[in-house]
Amino acid sequence: MPVHKVIVTNVAALKAKYGSTYSQVKVALATLAASDKARGLKSKLIAIDSGADMKAVRGRAVTGPHDQRGAKAAIDAIVKKHEPDYVVILGAQDVVPHIALSNPMADDDRSVPSDLPYACDVPYSRDPARFLGPTRVVGRIPDEAGASDPALLVTLLGIAATHRTRERSLYGDPFALSAKTWVKSTRLSVETIFGGGTKLFTSPPHGPKWTKAQLAPRVHFINCHGNTLTPTFLGEFPEEKYFDAHDSAQLPHKVSEGTVIAAECCYGAELYDPADADGKPGICSTYLREGAYGLFGSTTVAYGPSEGNGQADLICRFFIEAVLGGSSLGRAAAEARHRFVSQFSHLDPSDLKTAAQFLLLGDPSIHAVAPVPHALSRSHAVKRALASGAIVQGTRAFRRERIARAGHNLSHTVGAAQAAKRRAPASARALLESVARESGLRDVIHQSYRVVFPAQARATSSAPVQASRRARSVHLVQGSSRTDKDARGLPQASAIIATLEGSRVVHIRRVHSR
Amino acid sequence: MLKSVHMAGHVIRKRINVGSKSDHEAVVLVCAEGEFKLRRRGGPPFVDEALDPLVGKRISASGIVSAGQFIVDDYEVTGSA
Known about the structure:
The complex is a heterodimer of chains A (514) and B (81). Chain A has helices at 11-18, 22-38, 51-56, 68-82, 151-162, 183-194, 212-215, 283-289, 311-324, 329-342, 349-357, 380-388, 395-413, 426-438, 455-459, 463-470, and strands spanning 5-9, 43-47, 86-90, 99-101, 112-114, 138-141, 175-179, 201-203, 219-223, 232-236, 242-247, 260-263, 294-298, 346-347, 358-362, 415-419, 441-452, 472-481, 495-501, 504-511.
């Protein structure tokens, strides 16, 4: 029988954290395996620190919990051997590391901790542009970083084992929350997903003491500020006045079982040791402990416009739309990445960081929402055929084939900006500076990038297209605007991004500051 | 748990993470190890007015570093920048 779901972990790291109480994790894993079997999924636990386990997949054991290159190679070997439908990474980054990708933006993040490379069938690299086409369905069931008590992990495994799929109607109106400064952008997101008139809370004045009724909806869509080692998400209004909007301490006993969260916030999916935040756990792990099935969020500083939708808005919206359409949480994450990347001929640095930084926390095999079946599947003939085995459902295999095809297509065709030591041509630089001045930017920083396309894209493109791509470059002026303000007195812009072909500007956009 | 470190340098005010969802004016320590946004452990994560008097001063501080931020447990003003 093929393995449908591999659960990948570092057993030595778990034992080092939990000692004799690791036995509780083993029991919880056995319960999850039994639950998976009952729904037709054969799951298999593979220890990437085990020489025997890795030999069985023709791989090598990792040297320790921080061995990123080894973990990537180990998971590649496991996937090559078993071709599973789902890859579950078990544990926080002190058990199975994130891959620290290079940060394409000039912000304060030293790197972009990412699970995206585990979803791609290309070798280890720190270059995020190598990972534009995920072909695997991957999610992480975390434990508490730095913990010595496995309670969180045992709880999350239990939630995965007892989860149930619900009708779409039970994932109706969301709990939607926005920093007030970003309300136009958030309203566009939630109305695109849920329709006009969707209730949207803003901070200020709302939060963080939400009632159980307010948090009851099973979709939470959150567009607030977040920060590293911080148990709160924050609202903002007026400019640079921050308010607690959401607090991990306010979540217990209020989150509905089965909730799915998309958090656009900076560091919304950062798995930190609560000891580094005065003992206060992060919102992401608290949501999961309280019964949420999955959270899609960012490990680092995220991007998006204050009006309209871009970057974090889009990838989060695509994730929720896929979940509501009946995708498993893992497939929803893969499809969100595909939809996001496929919008572009090439990804500029902020888009590239967005693609790399968002990840799924939760069991990727969970279908929170039931897909709407075709009427034919309710016919007596089809029901009889399914019961007798005359029809063996192969639709998941078809979906994986499609995921792999979409991923390969993207990785073979989409270009990405790579930092380069070059200056924009004088005319373009003058234009950028002129637009920056008109936009009221100050403290500006110039950055330049070349645009690199995969070799396959070059081979299959016409000569004129190849020439156009070869001449392409991206130039940014980043700065802050405190002079050009909208009717609410909010800053209008903070970055101008121009795409050039040769010395000709072919595209220019203004990214609004959050 | 992150290891506690000790750093010393001068303090400036600077916009950080420009253009991102975390774009804000921060109090930043400039030291031999680089530039780090200053936070007090348990203090407001974005704007902490208690740190404003440090701007223009030299300080010596202990705390933890995460994502380009120096979250200090204690600090001492050692002079003017």
